[in-house]
Every structure is written in C-alpha cells, then in structure tokens.
Amino acid sequence: MTPELRIAMIGHEFMGSAHSQAWRVAPRFFDLPLRPVMAVLCGRDPGRTRAAADRLGWAEAATDWRAVVERDDVDVVDICAPGDTHAEIAVAALAAGKHVLCEKPLANTVAEAEAMVAEADRAAASGVRAMVGFTYRRVPALSLARDLVARGRLGRVHHVRAQYLQDWIVDPAAPLSWRLQKEKAGSGALGDIGAHIVDAAQFVLGDTIAEVCGTMETFVTERPLAAEHSGLSGTAVSDRTGPVTVDDAALFLARFTGGALGSFEATRFASGRKNALRIEVNGSAGSVAFDFEDMNVLHFFDGGEDAAVAGFRRIVVTEPDHPYVGAWWPPGHVLGYEHAFTHQAVDFVRAIAAGVDPSPSFGDGLRLQRVLAAVEASAASRAWQAVEASAASGARQAVQGSAASGARQAVQGSDSTSASRVGE
Q1: What would the 3-class secondary structure string for 245-307 be?
Q2: Where is the GFO/IDH/MocA-like oxidoreductase domain (predicted)?
Q3: Which tens digit of pLDDT belongs to each residue from 231-256?
Q4: Could you tell me the CATH superfamily of domain 140-294+296-335?
C-alpha cells in the first residue's frame, strides 16, 4: 500500500477550504508516491472548527495548534491562517520535524521571513521540506508561458507588464477586516495580491527583481468595525469605525537582474474586475499574455512568422501534454481555480517523497518579501530602491545573537494574538 502522509491544517476559512479541496482530490487524480491523509484541522473556535472539519473532510478538529504540531502522527503542517501567525507556527512546526506548506506571502516582514528560512534550512538537513504557496504558478497556462520563455521562444525579454485587479472593497461601507489591518496582514493590496504578480513575473521569466520604484495609496481610511472576519470583508456590527492601516493600491516599476523592465499594479479598487491577474511578457522574438479571468487560455505571438499573417495565437491550454493537464479531462474541458491548489499539493507531496527541495521554497518567499519591502521603502522615499538594500536592513533587524537564537527571537512576542486567530 502507498505510505501515508498525515496532514494537519491550521485555519479553515477561504484558503483553508481551497487547500482542503486539494488534499481530497490530489490522490484521486494523480499517481502519488505518498497518500495524503486529512488528519486534523485546527481553528480558534471549537464549534466552528468541528463544523468545518466535517464539511471539508478532516478526521479531527482541534483548537491548540501548538499541541497539533508536536503530534507524532502528523507529518505535514499546512498553514492557512493570517499572515501575522505564519512565522510562529512555521518555526515551531519545522523545529518539531514537520514538513510545512505555508500560504503566501511567507510572512509580514523581512525579519520574520528570514527567521523562517533559517529554521527551514536547519530542518532541511534532516530531510524536512518547506514550501510557500504561490498557487497561480500552477495554472497550466502560466506554466506554459514559463516553458516558452525558457525554450527561447520569446528571445531576449525586454518588458513585463503585470496587474492584479479586484474590486471587493470599492464600497466604503465594506467592513474593516483583518486584511485591512497592517499588524495582522502586513500590507494591503501589495502583499495580498501584488505578491502574486511579483511571483508570477519572476516565475515566468526565471529571473529576479533587482530594484523598484513605487507608490502606494489608501483611498478609504476608515471603515465600519466588524465582529467576525468572514471571507474577505467581514460582517459590520455598528456605526463605529476603525482605521484602515494598509494600502488599497500599489504601483511600481522594476528592473530585473537580466535587464528586463517591469511595471506592476495591484489594486482592490478596480470596479468590475473580480480576479484579473494579468501578465504580458515581450521579447525580441515574441510575446505571451495571460489573464486569469480567462485562465485556460494563453496568447502567444511568434515574431518569426510572416508579417502578412502574424498575430497573437490563442492557445487553449487543455491538451494532455500541457503542464498538469494530462491527469484531468479530455482537451477543451477546462480547469478552474481549485485545480491549481491540487497541482500545488501534488508537487509538494512528490518533493517530500523524492527528498528534494520544493519550489517555491521559503528562500523564494524571502526573496519576494524583500521585493515587497523595497516597494514600501521606495514609496516612502519617492526614489528607486535596490532590493538588496532592503534585504540588508531586514537582516540587521532579524538577527539577534546567534543564528539559532535569532530565528526564534524574531517570532516571539505574538503568542496572545496568533493563538486566538488561527481559524481565519
């Protein structure tokens, strides 16, 4: 029989539901070397967590994540809680010898991310694996775009344009949720959805961002208070308001290490746009363009074709030899949002079984965190900011004393908040 891989998941709201779907489905469509078992779901409220466990397919429900990560019958800890809990839970789980899958962004600060990477590096010496969940890179069309760039079909890349457009808080009466509070979310549109387009661009190019010049804006500075944070916006309960302490929109220019120029826009104020993650890459020999709101399609321009008939080609990415697609349906039978989470689970399980580092690693997550920090620094200074300079600043804040103690010190002091909010 296929050996079991017992999963504990921390958090059960939006991302928790998506990850649960992935763990349920992955072994039924993909031939995996280890069989995921949905062992225990952890949340802050006993009743809600038990109901979520029953609905989503988890065998047990628990409210003490510290006890869960220490259990001998748990192999993987899947972190789907808010950003301010990531570092504390991940460091504890890795120290306990558990493989860790952590939702993006890796942490709320560079210092926290560095602590997580330090712990992941120590754990890797014992065969423990850690991965950050940038799920969109597992969309087959976006993976195909990366393949085309890697094969040289675009020639030398000159430009990258990336947008992530949503509209779920355009209404100023939308309640204040944890995603709009810096101490809990780390940042607003920049970290929540901007992180995805930074990862998508770096993934497709196989390159990293070297410097940025950005600006950020908060359009609605006060919102009605909410009792419980449900989904994206929460539930308003009174006429009292609280401050919005994150950005509503972030825009920045970027220079890649390989010389390409990039422009990035992340906003939750694009009326009519529900989940428009868009990326276009232009090279000396061709271009690719992708929009998640048409997620099964990749547009490809081959600059080597006869100009009389050349144009963007619409590729429906559902053929068996397209990335991930062979395990699913016949050509033309499209995939959806949830399939990328299944692909993520498949890749993580296979990496664990093979004893190799998964991608994106915690190190990749840290590099992206440094880009986000550089954008914030640039917006404050109104000047270009080198990503490396931001990284150096974060390193000075993160490391106190030895590397081993510094990793743990960086995530201390948040017990009271994180312990009570893991069910988000």
Answers
A1: CCCCEEEEEEEECCCCEEEEEEECCCCCCCCEEEEEEEECCEEEEEEHHHCCEEEEEECCCCC
A2: 145-288
A3: 444 455 567 899 999 999 999 999 99
A4: Dihydrodipicolinate Reductase; domain 2 (3.30.360.10)
Domain with CATH 3.30.360.10 in the chain: 140-294+296-335
132/348 Cα distance (integer angstroms): 10
> How far apart (Å, rounded) are the C-alpha atoms in residues 170 and 323?
36
Instruction: Compute CA distances 255 → 136, 164, 216, 259, 386, whole Å.
Output: 22, 19, 18, 6, 9
| CATH 3.40.50.300 matches 4-136+356-362+390-419 | no
Q: Where in the chain is the domain with CATH 3.40.50.720?
A: 4-136+356-362+390-419
Q: Model confidence over 75-121: pLDDT tens digits?
A: 999 999 999 999 999 999 999 999 999 999 999 999 999 999 999 99
According to DSSP, residue 331 is labeled T
Report the alpha-carbon distance of residue 112 to residue 83 in Å, rounded.
10
Is the pTM value of this prediction over 0.85? yes
269, burial (CB in 10 Å: exposed 0-12, middle 13-18, buried 19+): middle
Among 185, 125, 105, which Cα is nearest to 360's?
Answer: 105
Query: Do the Cβ atoms of 263 and 280 come closer than 8 Å?
Result: no
